[in-house]
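OP here, attaching both records as promised.
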Amino acid sequence: MPGRSPKNDGLPVRADLTIAVDVTTRTIGAAVLRPVGTKAVDAALLPAKMPVPEPMRPGWANALRLSASRMPHARLVDIDTRMWEAAARPVIVPDQIVIDHGSVFVSETFVRAGNRLGISVQPARKGTAPDKGVVEATNAAVTMLFAQHVAGYTGGNPTTVLECWQRVDVNRCVVGRGVAAGP
């Protein structure tokens, strides 16, 4: 997924999206988007962000306010005043996180963060797709419904990236049935 260059030169860069998905509600409880090279501290932010209300941002529609949802807003404000200006994103307090075997998740930083928050960190069974099927399906949905439409999208397959840059006209290249702009 492309993003802004850390050098702020306007050129697209590849980015990593790391998510925590609540299996029960299939809600993305937290996400971190950063230039390629997710660090353990980025992953450790996920369980810390899940139980914190998302504040409304300038320019967001009023329909995105928690007060506009069917949630018992007044009751939630009585419990936590941060809910007053919160966006309508669920606040999820996980008791267990199932991780894949990626280095950022099995790192001491991530495991310690989970332990500090009282969250049991359990590795998925190797070679058992159902253990993280909800996350894989969510990643596929993000790609299909969002990422492929972002200018500069090249897909996850290295051969499509190479095809894109081998074209004479690099400002427009066809990538995996979609059209993406080059740099």
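Record two, same layout:
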Amino acid sequence: MPPKSPPILYKVELMPRPFSLQSNKARRNVMDWNRVEGNWKQMKGKIKEQWGKLTDDDLDQIAGKRDQLEGKIQERYGIARDRARRDIDDWYGNQTWH
């Protein structure tokens, strides 16, 4: 009887999906961000409640632009840009007005 061959093991690597649920949520939040931009004067108070280290000058510079908000949060809190983006997504998702 010939010697038994060892079992063949297969390595399967999963590739990330190009459009995950998270990216859909993030995309939807970006699309809805125009609501924040359009009501920036009213939104500044809510943003200041969430991110108290942002100054009034910061908020005036941001002027409703999401990428500017991400950058200022990153700068003031010393966190990575991706973390700032997730924090904004979480904050936005918890708002009752959207």
